[in-house]
């Protein structure tokens, strides 16, 4: 708004009635200058305007503009100008509260609370994902796809109830392990361990998604530490369980395992906390369920000034699907699906292959070697992902893994070559999960509402890839396309499986080259 020339009544004028002003010193009139005709009017900055109560023309004298031109109105002229409107006071208070809250938050990428969270999350990762290796190495094949998407929708839609979901998941999975001690048939074990135990995903999912709040610059390293827990569990727990089975028997072992699982994870769960508190919970659960239906009216009306929801008229529930229209989203999903279709085959088939070639140690030990090698692999790959672009790390990791399959496993009919293959495979392909943090960060751009959903989609796609790779590779083993070929290609008839594994992983790496983001 343009500056207004302030016209004030003669200083001697009385404030009552419309009579003549009271005698006193007079101020000579000065012709008013028009601001529109001022040569520097076009260069003036925006200034505040205000209204002055009108006076009779005969009683008004123009005061020189140079002495009464302000960036803001003088307090004596318009006292109300300096008082904020209620909405402005609310905005200022909100900004102050936000600044204070930000300063009070625990530090990221370090500090006692961040590392305590990571240690507790890694312990839960170790037990939840390591235990399937104690039942059978194919246990991961059954449970991998079901672990996370059991509670994905609930965790995403009701973040305020995350602790309750964790308790439910821990209770059900603990009951499944204890119930496994009393099974008498294989079908019972499928129910307890294949159907009920995957509810442990409700315990695990907050560990993986809240990590994005605690770590920013060191997010890749933190992911590497977290996911190395699977390698630790897959290496150590089978040895411990085997010793217990030989010492106290199956029933006592499963009872001890279930109790230890429940108690230890209950303690670890105490340290799984958010860094950024959620806003206060409002509304009943029934209203939240109604509001989650697309197009369903919401009972609460959003207040544009305070940023809060207030009771009143209904509004529409809107979902921002813009992220699904980005190339990063679809590229990441394709990379995950293709690599998952190949990454699981060696873990699934190396025990059978080792028995066919009479390797020593046996196939079970080879899988343990893979898990052990994945621990330093996850740490190194996570550390590298903090410093290199996602496309480079994806491409190199997939290229190395596909070459290892075609060479060390392809010609690995001896024990020494199989051991080398197990080490390098665990160090490369089984460590690919450490790149998830880099990919999810690029896809979501730190939008908290999407991180848990994208992570869950990645986990489900990995499960789909693992589940489909089993039947596909079983069919490929029945082919005779490589009969008579050298090494494992023809001697054990694994040639088609080797080509399929290398092709899917290499395809994922080729698509990963086009993943957006220079770093």
From TrEMBL:
<feature type="region of interest" description="Disordered">
    <location>
        <begin position="287"/>
        <end position="308"/>
    </location>
</feature>
<feature type="transmembrane region" description="Helical">
    <location>
        <begin position="165"/>
        <end position="183"/>
    </location>
</feature>
<dbReference type="InterPro" id="IPR011701">
    <property type="entry name" value="MFS"/>
</dbReference>
<feature type="transmembrane region" description="Helical">
    <location>
        <begin position="364"/>
        <end position="385"/>
    </location>
</feature>
<feature type="transmembrane region" description="Helical">
    <location>
        <begin position="252"/>
        <end position="272"/>
    </location>
</feature>
<protein>
    <submittedName>
        <fullName>Transporter</fullName>
    </submittedName>
</protein>
<feature type="transmembrane region" description="Helical">
    <location>
        <begin position="494"/>
        <end position="515"/>
    </location>
</feature>
<dbReference type="InterPro" id="IPR036259">
    <property type="entry name" value="MFS_trans_sf"/>
</dbReference>
<comment type="similarity">
    <text>Belongs to the major facilitator superfamily. Monocarboxylate porter (TC 2.A.1.13) family.</text>
</comment>
<dbReference type="Pfam" id="PF07690">
    <property type="entry name" value="MFS_1"/>
</dbReference>
<dbReference type="GO" id="GO:0022857">
    <property type="term" value="F:transmembrane transporter activity"/>
</dbReference>
<keyword id="KW-1133">Transmembrane helix</keyword>
<dbReference type="InterPro" id="IPR050327">
    <property type="entry name" value="Proton-linked_MCT"/>
</dbReference>
<dbReference type="GO" id="GO:0016020">
    <property type="term" value="C:membrane"/>
</dbReference>
<feature type="transmembrane region" description="Helical">
    <location>
        <begin position="189"/>
        <end position="212"/>
    </location>
</feature>
<feature type="transmembrane region" description="Helical">
    <location>
        <begin position="326"/>
        <end position="344"/>
    </location>
</feature>
<feature type="transmembrane region" description="Helical">
    <location>
        <begin position="449"/>
        <end position="467"/>
    </location>
</feature>
<feature type="region of interest" description="Disordered">
    <location>
        <begin position="1"/>
        <end position="95"/>
    </location>
</feature>
<feature type="compositionally biased region" description="Pro residues">
    <location>
        <begin position="22"/>
        <end position="31"/>
    </location>
</feature>
<keyword id="KW-0472">Membrane</keyword>
<keyword id="KW-0812">Transmembrane</keyword>
<feature type="transmembrane region" description="Helical">
    <location>
        <begin position="224"/>
        <end position="246"/>
    </location>
</feature>
<feature type="transmembrane region" description="Helical">
    <location>
        <begin position="392"/>
        <end position="411"/>
    </location>
</feature>
<feature type="transmembrane region" description="Helical">
    <location>
        <begin position="417"/>
        <end position="437"/>
    </location>
</feature>
């Amino acid at each position: 708004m343009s500056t207004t020339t302030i016209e004030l009544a003669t200083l001697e004028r009385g404030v009552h009635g419309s009579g003549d002003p009271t005698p006193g010193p007079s101020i000579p009139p000065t012709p008013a200058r028009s601001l529109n005709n001022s040569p520097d009017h076009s260069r003036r900055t925006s200034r505040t305007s205000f209204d002055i109560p009108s006076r009779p023309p005969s009683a008004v004298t123009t005061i020189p503009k140079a002495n009464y031109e302000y960036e803001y109105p003088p307090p004596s002229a318009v006292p109300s100008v300096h008082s904020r409107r209620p909405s402005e006071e609310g905005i200022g208070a909100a900004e102050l509260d936000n600044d204070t809250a930000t300063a009070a938050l625990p530090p990221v990428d370090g500090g006692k609370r961040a590392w305590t969270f990571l240690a507790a999350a890694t312990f839960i990762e170790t037990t939840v994902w390591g235990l399937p290796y104690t039942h059978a190495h194919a246990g991961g094949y059954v449970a991998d796809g079901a672990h996370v998407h059991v509670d994905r929708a609930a965790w995403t839609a009701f973040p305020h109830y995350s602790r309750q979901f964790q308790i439910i998941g821990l209770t059900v999975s603990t009951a499944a392990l204890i119930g496994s001690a009393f099974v008498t048939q294989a079908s019972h074990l499928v129910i307890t361990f294949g159907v009920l135990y995957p509810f442990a995903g409700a315990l695990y999912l907050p560990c993986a998604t809240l990590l994005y709040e605690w770590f920013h610059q060191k997010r890749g390293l933190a992911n590497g530490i977290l996911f190395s827990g699977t390698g630790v569990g897959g290496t150590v727990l089978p040895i411990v369980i085997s010793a217990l089975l030989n010492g106290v028997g199956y029933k006592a072992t499963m009872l001890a395992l279930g109790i230890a699982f429940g108690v230890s994870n209950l303690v670890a769960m105490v340290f799984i906390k958010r860094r950024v508190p959620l806003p206060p919970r409002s509304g009943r659960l029934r209203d939240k369920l109604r509001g989650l239906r697309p197009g369903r009216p919401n009972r609460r009306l959003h207040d544009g000034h305070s940023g809060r929801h207030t009771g009143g008229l209904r509004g529409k529930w809107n979902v921002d699907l813009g992220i699904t229209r980005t190339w990063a989203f679809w590229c990441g999903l394709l990379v995950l699906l293709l690599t998952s279709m190949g990454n699981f085959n060696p873990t699934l088939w190396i025990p059978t292959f080792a028995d066919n070639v009479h390797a020593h140690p046996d196939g079970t030990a080879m899988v343990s070697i893979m898990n052990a090698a994945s621990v330093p692999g996850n740490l190194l790959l996570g550390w590298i992902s903090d410093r290199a672009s996602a496309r480079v790390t994806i491409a190199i990791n997939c290229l190395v893994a596909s070459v290892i399959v075609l060479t060390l496993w392809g010609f690995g009919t001896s024990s020494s070559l199989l051991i080398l293959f197990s080490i390098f495979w665990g160090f490369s392909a089984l460590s690919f999960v450490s790149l998830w943090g880099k990919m999810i960060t690029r896809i979501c751009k730190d939008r908290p509402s999407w991180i848990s959903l994208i992570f869950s989609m990645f986990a489900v796609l990995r499960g789909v890839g693992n589940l489909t790779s089993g039947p596909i590779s079983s069919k490929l083993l029945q082919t005779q396309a490589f009969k008579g070929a050298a090494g494992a290609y023809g001697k054990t008839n694994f040639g088609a499986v080797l080509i399929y594994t290398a092709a899917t992983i290499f395809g994922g790496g080729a698509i990963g080259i086009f993943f957006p983001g220079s770093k």
